[in-house]
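# step 3/5: fold
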Amino acid sequence: MGNSNDVVLLYKTYDIVTEDNNSSIKYPGDAGINADINSIARISIVSTILDVVCRTTGMGFAAVARVTDTKWIACSVKDDINFGLKTGGELLLETTICNEIREDRQLVVIDHVDKDERFCKHHTPAMYGFQSYISVPILRKDGSFFGTLCAIDPKPALINTVQIRGMFTLFADLISMHLSSQDELLASEAKILEEQKISDKLQEALQTGNMGTWSIDPKTLHVSMSDNIKELFGFSLTHDISMEQIMEAIDPEYHKPLTDVLTNAVEKHKSSDITYSITNLVTKERKWVRATGKVFLHGNDPVEYSGLVMDVTADKMEEMRKNDFIGMVSHELKTPLTSLNGYIQLLQRVAIKGADTFAASALGKAHAQIKKMSNMINSFLNVSRLEAGKILIQKHEFQLDELLREIIDETDLTVSSHMITFLPCCQVMIYADHDKIGSVISNLLSNAVKYSPKGKQITVKCEIIEDSVVVSVKDEGMGIKPNDINRLFDRFYRVETKHTQNISGFGIGLYLSAEIVERHDGRIWVESQSGVGSTFHFSLPLKAQEIV
């Protein structure tokens, strides 16, 4: 049968290439076909299936074929009749019955070609010289057509039985299952490889950016961290790190803030972002680090608290130099400005005494401008002190409603362009820094005046909400866009629009206000609608007995 010249011309064969002790077929020109052939080659049970098929049916040739709309390729072959087709060999698709099976996906069984009404005159048996034939489709898990499990023999065979058809169908399903398992395995391996690549790139990025990873078990407080972070703190690279060692490396002034951060993470599942100083336990070198963290939950239970640590020493030192410079310049400016203010006030009194109204008015305006500049310089000094951790909060008891009235009255004296309304408020005694809270209120009122048109209303309200007192300053100005609100309390941040380009300011007032409120364990926020206006709120903690 294999010696027929007509048969030999109908197929091509390709050599088996062995790589790493695994037989694989190098099918030229089609990577997809090549992958499919090698998928069958990796299923070790296929050779056993073909052997069982031949033994059970008495047929001499059996194969698993990959069948597409253009090709018929032998993926695995058992040939006991010298048919001549090897693994990797290709038959012309149109010469096969498998092409018809691909279209209708039905099993075909022929006991005796010459006596079969459908196939006695079919071109395929005549071309390949077989009398018995069986072929069953192999479908992938997704229902797509892979190929066939088939067998032929030049002699008739009794194979159209329930048992033989069932066996072939079972074997085809078994091959399909193995193909699906391989697909899933290859997909998993590809995913693992991709994740490894991402992990390698992330690790490279972390090392380049002087960053490392850390993790804390919320239940046991067991700590793990990457080697570069261990080196930064001066820890051993080979031993576990305890919480006590970490606290030893962290400068004492940051022990409580970090303890609070850890407590909030474990108990309240809060994310964290904190900058603090450390002293390397080996080199004794002082460094600044920034640690960010997030709590991961399983249901409502925290299972991991982890994040990044960054060496920000260079940035921190540069920031400290800038603050020192701002503090020095502000201090140097303040001395001559104080003297100038004294002279202006003296001249103003002389002008008033001499009934020189023009000079008195001009000197009054000069005095107002000097006061404005003095306030600006004080703001810069406060920023410098704040960043250096030297700003002092001196708390004592005072009535917040009286402070509000005082500042509103002072503002009314210098601002005639807006109507300021102070809504009725109960007497509220608070424990806070009188001057610092006063500067917060002044800043909010000043901003309401600056960022709203002349003639508009400004409303100040003070109310008790649960265990806090909330102060609100509402304007009818230009409003704030949502993308600006998140950064409004950042240092030196200013909203840049065509309406604000002619408004003076350095973007430090709201930053200082937020820091002052935070140091009073309060909260500051804004509600705004572009084109309608804004309402700035700040809250301060309040005990029940503080309400008069």
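# step 4/5: annotate
The radius of gyration is 42 Å.
# step 5/5: archive (pending)
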